[in-house]
């Protein structure tokens, strides 16, 4: 029997190994029907440009509406989707859904909003990935410059040559690449000068440490400064306090995301935030 903590997430680590496998199988079965049953949806977290203090884009994040498995975390959901291969269909659905929504915002007058979509390694490594993205952009009539693809740092470090070829193609099409959770993968920034990258997303663990961990502070400052010298933009994730925002602004960070600005919200709530013109 899976336990819940505070009505929140399933505590996988509390389970015996065979219980864990059984639960994962149940989740996998339920997930198999999730797209067809329209149980999956996206929430959007605003991305704010520090210079203009305005929302210039969003990050799309997956959610699952399910009576039993509502509380399965997105990370676990993605992990199970990867193990089962559903990630291919789910990942494709996420890109399309995010672009359909972004097109709606463009049509409402927010004509330069971009959307940032998380891409799993397995999805990115599909031979037809670039073609697939291209087709969805055409179907949804969103110009490619409004799509950003987030690839984690660890992901970018495997199958490097193949990934480089794809990233270059994507860039030629006008699509932006962001490296997600940057700083957690122990790669050097110099290594990334080979990659056609638009943005580094500084992992929230560093932002979280700004005022009680000298190392975190130094790492952030170093990333921002080095990124500037090689013309890569920076986005800080997980900004939760005004002091953190102030610090990042002082360091010349370009964009911020985090609970201090807004949690990820449903599309209609995001529209309300856009009207407020933060
Ligand atoms: P991520 O891409 O690094 O996304 C940021 C995560 O941090 C999100 O968690 C977001 O809700 C959370 N977050 C944002 N601001 C704050 C803050 O100020 N404080 C704290 N504590 N957290 C904050 P979420 O939505 O649970 O997603 C977790 C991870 O799951 C994502 O990390 C991403 O790796 C993955 N994920 C989510 N949706 C998708 C998807 O559609 N496709 C793929 N492949 N992965 C996804
Ligand atoms: Mg992300
Ligand atoms: Mg991240
Ligand atoms: Mg993350």
UniProtKB/TrEMBL annotation:
This is GGDEF domain-containing protein. It is found in: Cell membrane. It comes from Anaerobacillus alkalidiazotrophicus. Signal peptide: none annotated. It comes from the Bacteria. Residues 24-278 form the EAL domain. The chain holds residues 502 to 779 of 779 of the full protein.
């Amino acid at each position: 029997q899976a336990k819940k903590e505070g009505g929140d997430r399933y505590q996988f680590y509390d389970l015996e190994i065979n219980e864990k496998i059984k639960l994962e199988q149940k989740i996998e079965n339920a997930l198999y029907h999730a797209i067809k049953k329209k149980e999956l949806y996206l929430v959007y977290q605003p991305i704010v440009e520090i210079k203009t203090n305005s929302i210039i884009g969003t990050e799309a994040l997956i959610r699952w509406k399910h009576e039993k498995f509502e509380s399965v975390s997105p990370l676990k959901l993605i992990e199970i989707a990867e193990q089962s291969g559903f990630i291919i269909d789910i990942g494709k659905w996420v890109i399309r859904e995010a672009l359909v929504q972004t097109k709606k915002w463009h049509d409402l007058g927010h004509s330069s909003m971009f959307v940032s979509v998380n891409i799993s390694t397995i999805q990115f490594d599909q031979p037809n990935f670039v073609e697939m993205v291209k087709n969805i952009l055409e179907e949804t009539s969103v110009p490619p410059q409004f799509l950003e693809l987030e690839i984690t740092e660890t992901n970018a470090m495997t199958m490097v040559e193949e990934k480089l070829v794809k990233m270059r193609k994507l860039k030629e099409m006008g699509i932006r690449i962001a490296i997600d959770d940057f700083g957690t993968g122990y790669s050097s920034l110099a290594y990334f000068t080979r990659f056609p990258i638009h943005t580094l997303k500084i992992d929230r663990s560093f932002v979280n440490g700004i005022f009680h961990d000298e190392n975190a502070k130094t790492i952030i400052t170093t990333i921002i400064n080095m990124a500037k010298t090689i013309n890569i933009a920076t986005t800080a994730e997980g900004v939760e306090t005004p002091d953190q925002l102030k610090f990042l602004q002082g360091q010349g960070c370009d964009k911020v995301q985090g609970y201090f600005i807004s949690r990820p919200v449903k599309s209609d709530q995001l529209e309300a935030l856009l009207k407020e013109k933060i």
